[in-house]
Write a structure and sequence with these properties.
about 220 residues, mainly alpha, two-stranded antiparallel ribbon, 2 strands, globular
Length: about 220
């Protein structure tokens, strides 16, 4: 199903945060990740919050925020909820693959947009994410921009899709989901603020995350 349009104008899919907010080109809005987290927190007053409502709040062309939200939630304690990591991983993969395909408007299947989480549980997760968001904002700035602009941005989205598809297979492996969520978060923030250093860091972290299952298996075999 196609998600309904947001009540407010939609930003360009890959626009830097300053432009997405309607500011002057090249202007950088303060604390873009924190603003996304706060916008997510604004939804937690409801008893239940669906993915469709989250997407609607950001707009149907806001690929980066919609991809960043489930990635950040994987870093939060919510990743301990059974099948929650799988749900987030599939959401990340679907959003990222649509950007690889150069879609301009986001489409998500109804069975996914109808998935709900308790507003209270989401609020508890958001409280943790504020610290993560502040760290990401504080340390990000435009660097190595050739890594996060066309054509390399397609590679970044492709990596996010690969990571998202890997998450369901590693859900039962301790810490793997959170590490993979952080990988996608670094890439998404890198794309958002044009910081290629974050992308390099995400690749290194992905190597660490994918080594965890082998470490766990080795310990079990012993």
């Amino acid at each position: 199903m196609m998600l309904p349009a947001s009540a407010r104008p939609d930003p360009a899919p890959d626009a830097p945060d300053g432009e997405a907010a309607g500011g002057a080109p090249g202007a950088k809005a303060p604390r873009p990740v924190r603003l996304i987290v706060e916008q997510l927190d604004a939804l937690t007053g409801a008893k239940q919050v669906s993915l469709g409502e989250i997407v609607l709040s950001f707009g149907r062309t806001s690929f980066l925020p919609v991809m960043l939200v489930p990635a950040l939630l994987l870093v939060s304690p919510l990743s301990g909820i059974p099948l929650f990591s799988t749900f987030c991983g599939l959401c990340i993969a679907l959003v990222a693959l649509q950007r690889v395909a150069q879609r301009q408007r986001l489409w998500l299947p109804g069975w996914l947009t109808r998935r709900q989480i308790s507003g209270a549980a989401l609020h508890r997760g958001v409280r943790v994410l504020r610290r993560v968001a502040d760290w990401l904002d504080r340390n990000s700035r435009p660097r190595l921009q050739f890594l996060v602009t066309p054509p390399m941005n397609v590679v970044c989205y492709g990596l996010c899709a690969l990571v998202g598809l890997t998450v369901p297979f590693l859900e039962l492996v301790p810490f793997s989901s959170s590490l993979l969520g952080l990988v996608v978060s670094l890439i998404a923030v890198g794309l958002l603020v044009r910081d290629g250093v974050y992308v390099i860091g995400s690749v290194l972290l992905a190597g660490v995350a994918l080594s965890v299952p082998f470490f766990v298996v080795a310990k079990v075999v012993e």
